[in-house]
Amino acid sequence: LFAGTADFFYAADKLEILPPMRGHEIAFAGRSNVGKSSLINALTGRNALARTSHTPGRTQQLNFFDVGGGKLVLVDMPGYGYAAVEKAKVAAWTELIHSYLRGRANLARVYVLIDSRHGIKPNDAEVLDGLDKAAVSYQIVLTKSDALKKHEIQARLDATAAAIARRPAAYPEIILTSSRTDDGVTDLRASIARLLAE
Ligand code: GTP
Ligand code: MG
């Protein structure tokens, strides 16, 4: 699946102009700067497919990427929880994110990225609440594992597993990744392949 081509094909900043649904869609959600765009690049093996930045708030639209010629669409979402953006803009983003997540029939799963250094923050928990309520299947992906020591990683995995244990729409397995070292990227690809085979 990931051996072939991956191409950007659509950017939406309004729900009314989402691309037509084709194949399975998988969305990458998470706080600003958590590493969504970087992980999409690592997954597809394309350095600059999704635009990344040191400055939070880089991705401001829903960006759609085709993988494997119509088999799979990866959606890079704008991050949430970035304080330095105007209130009106935050409201517009939140609405776009939530409506997309609730209303997209071909959305197979949302990968919710959590910075492994920080764990699940209150605004992450709010997003998870929304996904649970809407019964949108999601899975937690811990990012930036390269920034932690081994024992810190285990503690973060345990705490995260405990935090999602009673969440109805959460997939129990947590995937640990680093886009910098490519750790866990193979696991994430396998997870996606299994999902598409279901
Ligand atoms: P927004 O689009 O603003 O929501 O951010 P994003 O979640 O798409 O994050 P992005 O991929 O742009 O990465 C944000 C910053 O984190 C960049 O400076 C990346 O270099 C850094 N980063 C991403 N992945 C990793 C990782 O695995 N390890 C480390 N150490 N840094 C990473
Ligand atoms: Mg981004």
How would you explain this protein's 3D organization?
Belongs to the TRAFAC class TrmE-Era-EngA-EngB-Septin-like GTPase superfamily. EngB GTPase family. This protein is of the alpha/beta class and 198 residues long. It is globular. Helices cover 34% and strands 24% of the residues. The chain has 5 helices and 7 strands, in the order E-E-H-E-E-H-E-H-E-H-E-H. It has a single domain (6-197), classed as P-loop containing nucleotide triphosphate hydrolases (Rossmann fold). Guanosine-5'-triphosphate binds at residues 30, 32-38, 52-54, 56-59, 78-79, 143-144, 146-147, 178-180.
Shape descriptor: globular
CATH fold label: Rossmann fold
CATH architecture title? 3-Layer(aba) Sandwich
Helical amount: 25-40%
Rounded radius of gyration (Å): 16 Å
What is the CATH class?
Alpha Beta
Proportion of β residues?
15-25%
Secondary-structure element series? EEHEEHEHEHEH
Give the end-to-end Cα distance, rounded to a whole number of Å. 15 Å
Q: Tell me the structural class.
A: alpha/beta
What's the rounded overall pLDDT mean? 90
For the largest beta sheet, what order do the strands appear in spatially? 1-3-4-2-5-6-7
The CATH homologous superfamily is termed P-loop containing nucleotide triphosphate hydrolases
Protein name: Probable GTP-binding protein EngB
GO molecular function, one term: GTP binding
Keywords: Cell cycle, Cell division, GTP-binding, Magnesium, Metal-binding, Nucleotide-binding, Septation
Family: Belongs to the TRAFAC class TrmE-Era-EngA-EngB-Septin-like GTPase superfamily. EngB GTPase family.
